[in-house]
Amino acid sequence: MIQIDDLTKRRGPRTVLDRVSFTAEPGQVTAFLGPNGAGKSSTLRILLGLDRPDGGTARVAGVPYRRLRYPLRTVGSMLDGPGAHRSRTARDHLRWVARTHGIPVRRVDEVLAQVGLAEAARVRVGRLSLGTGQRLGLAAALLGEPEVLVLDEPVNGLDPDGIRWIRDLLRAHADAGGTVLLSSHLMGEVAGVADDLVVIADGRIVAAGPLDRVTAGYRSLEDAFFALTASREVAR
Ligand SMILES: Nc1ncnc2c1ncn2[C@@H]1O[C@H](COP(=O)(O)OP(=O)(O)OP(=O)(O)O)[C@@H](O)[C@H]1O
User: Fold this and answer.
1) Pairing state between β 2-11 and 55-60
2) Which UniProt keywords apply (predicted)?
3) What is residue 234's predicted lDDT score, i.e. its pLDDT?
4) Which of 14, 37, 193, 204 has fewest C-beta within 10 Å?
């Protein structure tokens, strides 16, 4: 479970997160949607202990990320691609992540197979395609068999097969009782996999709840998204 309460973040004179609150529940895929610059990455960075808020709290499995002793065993994440050194092979990168996070090294071959990278295990990260790099990022996220997955734009660079594959993977994770929070600007993809939606615009949450409730009265998720985010612009 993920709990975000009253999160505020200022950058100079600007308030980029303004009392942001929402939850992502176990058993559900929660999509975090918002236009460019709305505050999605800022929220996820605080949730993952990469940045500090000016106010409020972000908890994963009941505690702030920085208090987790072996965070990868509780929450797997992917922000900005695989985050691996270009000169390492995919397998070496995962072995290094496993060793530094108290994860059995046997998991490396399991996740390589799970994300369809067994063949590319000896390829250097710098030579991987964008989509293959995304798969490596996911492999690292899955390594510690975490309950929670936090993924920033996970379908970037994936082909249609890859998009279907990740959708199935996220669905299976949630169906097994896990928590999934993914940010995306690809509304078609989100509509196909999300149970719950959280919509952010200009640093504030403008809608949150089950997909069918948030989109009730609109022809599509896209219509709902534009209406919800546009009303925030007008209200400013
Ligand atoms: N390091 C930083 N210094 C100053 N301003 C920043 C910094 N990081 C983000 N911002 C600003 O904070 C606001 C929120 O940015 P953020 O990256 O969280 O949005 P986002 O919803 O993830 O957008 P995108 O979809 O484009 O990734 C933006 O106005 C951005 O310019």
Assistant:
1) antiparallel
2) ATP-binding, Nucleotide-binding, Transport
3) 44
4) 14
Is this complex's ipTM strictly greater than 0.85? yes
Domain span including residue 197: 2-74+146-235
Same domain, 190 and 215: yes
Ligand 1 close to Cβ of residue 80 (< 6 A): no
Query: What is the distance between the alpha carbons of residues 232 and 236, in angstroms, rounded to a whole number?
Result: 6
Query: Is the minimum distance from the CB of 17 to ligand 1 under 6 angstroms?
Result: no
The CATH number linked to 221 is: 3.40.50.300
* End-to-end Cα distance, the chain: 32
Are residues 173 and 125 both part of a single domain? no
Checking if the pLDDT of 146 tops 60, the result is yes
168, 223: one domain: yes
pTM (two decimals): 0.91
